[in-house]
């Protein structure tokens, strides 16, 4: 599955959910600050995408991959992402400006950095996972 | 008054018990399609002897994978789920200081955790269909407390908080979440209570008697219906004959 195809569906789903015109949605826009999505909007955006692709999406998928790569090293301590965690998560989230991964960033704040591209990557990751299962 | 529940798809837990059975039968009478979740086949068969059009789904409500499979199957079979009534519950009476830890866990599992698991799974179809109504059957003990039922009352108080908080989250998605708090109701579950404290309860209840399952069911159907309760969410209604006054 190609990024472009997922992107078109993500745009449509966001448009249907919050009324932000699909034609004005760009890959690099942040979900929360720039598109004005909130966590409850995200619920039906994820459900619509799950329904569309027949998969189960988890917004924590990217973090799970980072935790796995870190092995025994901690990803976060008391909700604050460790320096090692920041390094690994920035490698997974190349779509986000690296300067945003500052010391003291919390797990909660990380979600605020998610872009349209991040959402597409989560969808693509799950599609691949499902394909590998079968 | 027409509650406009005809052809609504209603999923009910605890429908083999006194209050749950009444709720299932009353939804049937209103023309809804009633689906019940059961664990005990014998009890379910007893329910369907008198109500042959009720459809059953066997599921352990503490197993999240089984719940997901059941919800998927229901949506395949019926296309949507309009109403969920969480009525499954259980109580074990014993002084808290000597109750077994596994009994505490069981009270929290049956009366609170299983409700959360099932409700979480059902939110997906409700969000996708852009509509839904959920009614949680709590207990007056959530407010009043009670001797010998510390863990049960705590779980029901948690259920009330769950009703309020989830209503806040899901209101914008056109999903209403409400509850009822039955007081002393004549059922098998309250048999020992009745034997032990009938006089006290009759005295403490403003209406001077035990309630019956039908009186609880009326409240559940009222809250579930978009015709009667379209602007009500996050509320838990006392159906207790004035016990809490």
Account of the protein in words:
The complex is a heterodimer of chains A (134) and B (245). Chain A is mainly alpha-helical and 134 residues long. Chain A has two domains: 3-59 and 115-120, Non-ribosomal Peptide Synthetase Peptidyl Carrier Protein, Chain A, CATH 1.10.1200; 61-109, no CATH class. In chain A, 56% of the residues lie in helices and 3% in strands. Chain A has helices at 3-18, 39-53, 61-70, 83-92, 107-112, 116-133, and strands spanning 76-77, 80-81. A two-stranded antiparallel sheet of chain A has the order 1-2. The longest helix of chain A is centred in the C-terminal third of the chain and has 18 residues, at 116-133. The radius of gyration of chain A is 15 Å and the shape is globular. Chain A starts with a helix and ends with a helix. The mean pLDDT of chain A is 93. Chain B is globular, with a radius of gyration of 17 Å. With 245 residues, chain B is α/β, with parallel strands linked by helices. Chain B has a seven-stranded parallel sheet with strand order 3-2-1-4-5-6-7, sandwiched between helices. In chain B, 49% of the residues lie in helices and 15% in strands. Chain B contains nine helices and seven strands, in the order βαβαβαβαβααβαααβ. Chain B has one domain (9-92, 117-140, 160-239): Rossmann fold (3-Layer(aba) Sandwich). The two termini of chain B are 29 Å apart. Classes of the chains: A mainly alpha (134), B alpha/beta (245). At the A-B interface, helix 2 of A face helix 4 of B.
Helix and strand layout, with pairings?
The complex is a heterodimer of chains A (134) and B (245).
Chain A: H1 3-18, H2 39-53, H3 61-70, E1 76-77, E2 80-81, H4 83-92, H5 107-112, H6 116-133
Antiparallel strand pairs in A: 1-2
Helix pairs in contact in A: 1-2, 1-6, 3-4
Chain B: E1 9-13, H1 18-29, E2 33-38, H2 41-50, E3 55-58, H3 64-78, E4 83-86, H4 101-128, E5 132-137, H5 141-144, H6 150-170, E6 175-182, H7 191-204, H8 213-224, H9 226-229, E7 236-239
Parallel strand pairs in B: 1-2, 1-4, 2-3, 4-5, 5-6, 6-7
Helix pairs in contact in B: 1-8, 3-4, 4-6
